[in-house]
Amino acid sequence: MINYNLAKIRAIVFDVDGVLSRQTISLHPDGEPMRTVNIKDGYAIQLAMKMGLHIAILTGGTTRSVRLRYENLGVKDVFMGCAVKIVKYNEFIAANGYSGDEVMYMGDDIPDYEVMRACGCPVCPADACSDIKDASIYVSHLNGGDGCARDVIEQVLRAQGKWLSSEKAFGW
């Protein structure tokens, strides 16, 4: 269980590679990176938004399929090509009027470190690098791409009394 007052969480921001997709990326013959997605993560993301949480994606990648995946789930804030993630993170919280303690961030590697230190509730998948695990208040029992996003979203929604709390939960 996440040792944090999850009732405060208004936004959850996710990295993609190593969090919403597995760490290994296949390459398409045209050179495009092919990422995996987890269906249960997708369900939880769209449900979280229906229940009033702000979900955002913050990635260094630029693959069009990643943008399409999360926009098709209803995510409005898909920030791609973020070479230095803390810059876009700070813009995101300022634009939405969030304080750091209202934001959960899930990352897995060194490019996520500054954001992990800035947000109130830093979390990571089981296979995150050691520095990110050290910066996290919760390490999921699941690896990146294997449902770790569902794990943290479900905990937040349960803590807020929003998990399976309405008919919104029973459809896409």
Could you give the distance between the termini? 26 Å
Strand residue content: 15-25%
Radius of gyration: 15 Å
Q: What is the count of helical runs?
A: 6
Structural class label: alpha/beta
User: How many runs of DSSP E, i.e. beta strands?
Assistant: 8
Helix share, percent = 25-40%
Major sheet summary line: 6 strands, parallel
Give, in spatial order, the strands making up the sheet with the most strands: 5-4-1-6-7-8
Question: What is the typical, i.e. mean, pLDDT?
Answer: 94
Low-confidence stretches are none
Order of helices and strands: EEEHEHEHEHEHEH
Categorize the overall geometry: globular
Keywords: Hydrolase, Lipopolysaccharide biosynthesis, Magnesium, Metal-binding
Family: Belongs to the KdsC family.
Catalytic activity: 3-deoxy-alpha-D-manno-2-octulosonate-8-phosphate + H2O = 3-deoxy-alpha-D-manno-oct-2-ulosonate + phosphate
Cofactor: Mg(2+)
